[in-house]
Design a protein that fits this description.
- The protein is α/β, with parallel strands linked by helices and about 425 residues long.
- It has two domains: about 160 residues, Aspartate Aminotransferase, domain 1, CATH 3.90.1150.10; about 240 residues, Aspartate Aminotransferase, domain 2.
- The strands form three sheets. Strands 3-9-8-7-6-4-5 form a seven-stranded mixed β-sheet, with helices on both faces.
- Helix 6 runs parallel beside helix 14 and helix 16 crosses helix 17.
- The longest helix has about 35 residues.
- The radius of gyration is 23 Å and the shape is globular.
- About 45% of the residues are buried.
- The chain binds pyridoxal-5'-phosphate (PLP).
- Pyridoxal-5'-phosphate binds next to helix 7.
Length: about 425
């Protein structure tokens, strides 16, 4: 639909208008290019699939049930009756919109209740919630740092962290993925050239499912006088005995990290993001960060849902244990079957790396036909040549779900590879002709 819209807009202005000539620029869209190339090879478009209900460990698409490995509902809390009740009550009291920016339009009780609960979770002074996880990183980094500063980020840091670094105007240093030696070499050489500096990492890397060396990152931040931001999008609810995240995993006092960031869209079943930090930082962000000041407040219903999800997470650590157990099973079974799971450590995110983007696409399609939904991840989300199927695992997945999926990957991968090889050979022959 969207594409048709662009086509119409372009043609109305003769395709060439500078304001509307988006069709010409579509060649820049990597996903679009891949879909188009896939279509030439006979692949169906895997994007924008419509689920007919809540996407949990299983999901319904086109009237058919699929085992679903594309949900962030790690703890199987989405659709929990207590969430529905909390949301219904919040909607009754406050409606579905915050109506305006909290700074000027005021807030509702669920905003502060959620912020207090998250600050307590990390044992820090305060917390700010934003309406989007992506905007949380963009707005926080973009606002807090400037031209004289430096942002040192992991080479595979999420797009939102990188975009925030760009926006800030600070000098951006990307260190080799999960490599503290590479970071230290950069800090040694560059840190003194800047006023403020921050190290930015994820608590569990979203593409590879591996964990950063948090103790060493803390030591480096102290040694080189930097701040440290940890994005817990995929580690909150996933790591540690009670799901408190990467600090609990390492047994580290959370106050050693300057800013705990996470999205609210994953284990906490809502939408938005937060920064949990000192009162000074939170106040600074609440009074100036554009994604907070110039954006509407989080809908109170979402704040109520996230708070309830957090309560359930803390009350029922068995969800976290189940998730960890089934994730470890997934990793072990996949490795036993000879699949390339990269650096994954068996916590909620496990990739099966196949290399070529088209192979990943055809493999996903073959699995879909067998009732398994797992999305292909290709460039630019990951480096060229490391395309993969990314499996998000939920506490509700069973060992049978895992075996069914992995066995299907093993059976379908050679066919996907053969389809792509045959196409490549054919096109080479044509080019030579
Ligand atoms: C590591 C990381 N940070 C930030 C975000 C953005 O969060 P949201 O999708 O809730 O806006 C994501 C999204 O997947 C993520 O994986």
């Amino acid at each position: 639909m969207k594409n048709d819209h662009f086509a119409q807009a372009g043609s109305a202005h003769g395709q060439g208008g500078r304001a509307t000539g988006f069709n010409r620029m579509r060649s820049k869209l990597s996903f679009d290019r891949l879909v188009e190339m896939g279509a030439r090879m006979g692949m169906k478009n895997p994007l924008f699939v419509c689920h007919e209900g809540a996407a949990k460990a299983t999901t319904c698409i086109g009237g058919k049930e699929y085992i679903n490995f594309s949900t962030y509902d790690y703890l199987d809390i989405n659709t929990h009756p207590e969430l529905t009740e909390a949301v219904t009550e919040a909607a009754r009291l406050y409606g579905t919109s915050a109506g305006a920016s909290r700074l000027v339009g005021g807030e509702r009780p669920p905003h502060r209740v959620l912020e207090r609960a998250i600050a307590d979770l990390y044992g820090v002074e305060d917390c700010i919630i934003y309406v989007s996880g992506h905007a949380t990183n963009v707005s926080t980094l973009g606002f807090m740092f400037g031209a004289r500063d430096a942002i040192f980020h992991d080479g595979l840091a999420h797009n939102s962290l990188v975009q925030g670094a760009f926006l800030s105007g600070a000098t951006r240093y990307s260190y080799n993925h999960n490599d503290c030696d590479s970071l230290e070499a950069l800090l040694r050489e560059k840190r003194d050239q800047h006023k403020h500096a921050i190290i930015v990492t994820e608590g569990l890397f979203s593409m590879d499912g591996n964990i950063p060396d948090l103790p060493r990152l803390i030591a480096l931040k102290q040694q080189y006088d930097c701040m440290l931001l940890v994005d817990e999008a995929h580690s909150l609810g996933v790591l540690g005995a009670t799901g408190r995240g990467v600090h609990e995993y390492f047994g580290i006092e959370p106050g050693a990290v300057d800013m705990w960031m996470s999205t609210l869209s994953k284990s906490l079943c809502g939408c938005g993001g937060f920064i949990a930090a000192s009162k000074e930082i939170v106040e600074f962000l609440k009074l100036g960060s554009p994604g907070f000041v110039f954006s509407v407040g989080m809908p109170p219903v979402i704040a109520a849902a996230c708070k309830k999800a957090l309560d359930i997470m803390l009350r029922e650590p068995e969800r976290v244990h189940k998730l960890q157990k089934i994730s470890q099973y997934f990793l072990k079974y996949a490795q036993e079957k000879g699949l390339d799971t990269g650096a994954a450590q068996g916590y909620a995110v496990v990739p099966v790396i196949v290399g070529n983007s088209m192979v990943a696409g055809f493999l996903a399609q073959a699995l879909f036909q067998r009732g398994i939904f797992a999305m292909p991840i290709t460039f630019p989300a990951v480096k060229e040549g490391t395309a993969r199927l990314r499996f998000f695992i939920s506490a509700a997945h069973t060992e049978e779900h895992v075996r069914t999926a992995i066995d299907a990957v093993v059976e379908e991968l050679p066919g996907a590879q053969a389809t792509v090889d045959a196409y490549m050979q054919q096109t080479q022959v044509k080019e030579q002709d």
